[in-house]
Please model this.
Amino acid sequence: MSDGSTVVEIETIGAEVHIRVLGQFTFNLRQDFRTVFAYLPEQRYVLDLSQTEFLDSSAVGLMLMLRDHATENGKGVVIKNASKKLLDILGMVGFDKYFEFI
Model:
C-alpha cells in the first residue's frame, strides 16, 4: 500500500502480522491501518520502523489504535528496529509503558 511518498508493507508470518512503514508515518496511513484491523484481526502485530523517517502525532494515535485493537483480542504490538530519533519521540510520549521494543 502507498500514498506516493510512503509505502506500507504488510506480511503475515505465522500468527503475526508484520507492518513495515517506509518513509513518513503520518495521518495519510489511516486507511492502511483500518485495512489491517478489518482483514487481519486477532493477530500479534510487529510494527517495523527500520525505514521510517518521520512520524507525527497522527502516527502516535494510529499506533495506539493498533495496540487497543490487539489487546482487545488478547494480543500485543511489538515495535521493531526504531531509530534512536524515533525511540526518543516514543519514549517522550510514554510508549515504553505500552509497547514492547525489539
